[in-house]
Amino acid sequence: MKQERTKAEILIKCFVAIMLIANFILLGYAFLVPNTNGEAERGSFETIGFNDGWMLETDDGPESISLPTYTGAEKGELVTITNLLPEKLSDDNCLMIRATMEDVYVYIGDELREQYASENLWISTYYLPSAYVVVNLTSMDAGESIAIQYRVKATDRLEEIQLGAGNNAWFKVIQDNLAVNAAAIVLLVLGIALIIAYGIMHHIYNNNKTAFYLGILMIDIAVWISSESKLRQIIFPNPSLSGLFAYLSVELICLLTCFYFDEVQHKTHHKSYIVIEAIASAQLLINTVLHCCGIVDYYETLVFSHIWMGIGLVVGFVHIVLDIRARKLREYFIIIVGMLCFLAMAMLEIIGFYISRNHVFGLFLCVGLIMLMVATIIQLFNDQIQALKNRENYQTQMTINTIKTIAGAIDAKDEYTGGHSDRVGHYAVVLARAMADDYGFTEEDILRIHYIGTLHDIGKIGVPDPILNKAGKLTDDEYTLMKKHVDIGAELMKGIGKGVDGLLDGILYHHERYDGKGYSSGLAGQDIPLIARIICLADCYDAMTSNRVYRKRLSSEEVREEFIRCRGSQFDPELTDIFVKLIDTKELVPYTIDGMATTQSGEILKSAMLEKYLKELSKLDDMEAKNPTHIRMMNYILKLKEKRGESINAFVLTILDKDELWDTENRFVTPYIQADDMNIEYNDKSRIIVLFGKSDEEIEDFEKTLEEIPVNFKVGRI
Length: 718
What we know:
The protein is α+β, with helices and mostly antiparallel strands and 718 residues long. It has 22 helices and 18 strands.
């Protein structure tokens, strides 16, 4: 049933995807393809161009012109053009004249019918915001003379004039400017959404304000586009104000872009951006003061703002190149595409302003900003995903370190099994890799098996030292307590066990036997969890190939024979076959030499050599350790130092004459014992001296000094 439901879900999702695609195709067709026969007509919104038959008054007399045209007039000159209105007009006709920052006066007959001039605005500004001057006509105006006066300011170009019915003259303007205004609305909404999202989730971004600055930049550009739009008279009840915030918005673009780039580049180039920001801020302040005082209009200082904006764009591009050369691009490798597109589009916007004053303001910036926004969102999501992975990796590393620490604590507890936990983890990994194809193990599974193998004996922490380190056979009561280490370990690891699948099974059941005669639950065959069967093999292999308190290691032949003998009784037969094959092919070799623990490079650990020496020493009369706990702690410290790769030199000094005593504060030895070194009494006649991090010359010096001691003793150099 589960498989059938899965197939049904897949079919449903595929169907929904196909329907969505079909829906968007229909939407595009309906929007882009012109009307066809049989469709309901929407009527005509076309206007009539009233651009021919105009006379331009010049010093040499009237000159016939057609609109649009350039007059060649100088700034401040009053240009007049005249014509006759059509013979047929209705009461709902109107003329629409585009004023590109100049003063416009429209006369019908001798009557000043409409005007758009600086002296009539409540805001004192010489350069008017571009606007459409609409003149309402009646049937009585048919055939009347019309005169239009322009006071030239920014440009001497006279735009087209449209004659329409009602307000349908606006239709073409709306149609031509709908896309860019819709884009401005989208930018505004998305910018607000980014700021709100940042406000809600700023703690997730770790004070990274990329989304916040991008949101502000998008809002600012959206405001600028709407204020420069040819629809400003429809959008704003007071369109003349749009001329002010249009200039403020365009001058803020440079500052906000620097904020954004600086944040994206993790303030690597902060000083450079600060300089640009300071100059742009000063420029904006000066321009505002000059405008408000009536000295210089915003329009006249706009060129300086464009210059600094261009410099800012170049600086941003240079910083990107520097980051590429310094290989810092991986910090924002996705967003770089959007940044480059935005820089290119912003530069085109500036160039377009000076090449063609009739270009659609904001079109290039809209495209660049949308691409920048998409890249930013993808980058932020990627950063959060990477941060989650880093946190997971950190937690994993912390788990590994915890496991290693616990494993070290286990080894310190067991007097003569140094490195047992690490080796079991390694042997379990070798077996798991050989099983991977047949059992579907992933690398994550193998890593998990390594952790479990390392922690399998954690419960020995709760076993009393005399039982754990007893050289002879355990009594029934002692054996009962020893078996409890699996229950203790499972109890200790309950918290971690929830996050590491199979951990508790590996700890609790690794002493179960395939024939059901093991402990602690008497499980048999396939009822024993797979992880426990793997750990059982690895654990027994290390026990056989290591020196133990109760016996020496087995030979390679004995180890192999033991696994074959216990196949199907103690061990899983299938896993045993794989294990024996690994032994035969030398893919599995003991991390011990003569039963002593080794490094992965095959060198015998100093701690293992010392353990063996002390074990042999303890067999002599009166040579038992005076304080075994101290010796175990010393060996534990040695193992930790060895894992860190520190240099270790150990010496066992044993007095041969029973009647002699050796003063440990002897002036021959004391100068060589530093704070980090160890000088521990083994018994009344022996001491263990361990020197850490000493050079070869210092050790050679120490050995020469030992020869000068006036006592009859034996030196065991480890």
